[in-house]
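Notes for week 9. Today we move from apo structures to complexes. The key idea is that a small molecule is not decoration. When we ask for a structure prediction with zinc ion present, the ligand SMILES becomes part of the input, just like the chain. The input block below holds both the sequence and the ligand string. Read it once before you look at the output, and try to guess where the molecule might sit.
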Amino acid sequence: MGTYNSTTTTARCPRCSRTAEFDVYLYFGNTTRMTHVSIGEPYPFFDRRAPQNGGPIPTDLLGEGYSVCPHCGKDFFCGALVEDGRLVRVLPVTTQLPYDPDTETCDEMKCPSCGATDGTRLQIFSGYERSRFDCSACNSFGEVKASSEGILSSVLQPLRVLHGR
Ligand SMILES: [Zn+2]
Ligand SMILES: [Zn+2]
């Protein structure tokens, strides 16, 4: 899906902690017209469709947003709250890992799945609870909790093709 709506919001960057005005890309609802929606304005949805197909999202779900900080240039995901059909609030979320890591270590961490060290890659995101790990020896990847001593816990899964936007 190459279309999105957008909004502008002031928030604290989860990557560098500076407050900035962010342009946020919104990947939910009716994005066919690439609408810029200000906070407080009605948000476009397709009527009578499921949330994952562009229909209205319930208030206990957040719509997916994505932004890049104008200060540090790092990316992060956002959650958008819609109430009574209006875009109420857009906030950074640190439960979904960004694409661009702060640091990356290769061939240093032992794979919790196959035990190999060569071919492993750990991507660390400051301020985020989890790190991203992949192992080219056993083709697994996933999100892990890691410290300098090693990987503490992991939810690894077999490598699959991720559909980018
Ligand atoms: Zn930043
Ligand atoms: Zn492995």
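Residues 13, 15-16, 18, 69, 71-72, 74 surround zinc ion (ligand 1) (CB under 6 Å).
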